[in-house]
Amino acid sequence: MNHILRKISQAALTGSAAVFTTVTTVMAETAPDINIPAPTYGLTDPNIGGLIVTAVNIALIIAALLTFLFLIWGGIQWITSGGDKAAYEAARNRITAALVGLAIVAAAYIITRVITSFLNIPIFTGQ
Fold this sequence. Notes:
Layout: H1 2-21, H2 48-79, H3 85-118
């Protein structure tokens, strides 16, 4: 009985090895040539609107990164204050200043968007 099971398993392994090792041709369709222009981020636009939009977007990204760095710095300073009242206050003030700065930048962006939409100035559309 054991001999028969061994022969069956050898036959199954040999058959599966033959199936998995055979080479078949694959007829794949070639992809069409697609020409996608590189993004310019408004820097090559001849109008001032694209330049203003790019500058505002870059300023917002820098403000967000600086806020994140100041929050990390304040958090580390808070953790390492070790009960020192002055270090604790400095860390709390740093975190508060970072959040207030981010709120000011966001408010300036929103106010600019509202004013330009009311006055119908196409600054943010780049036209």
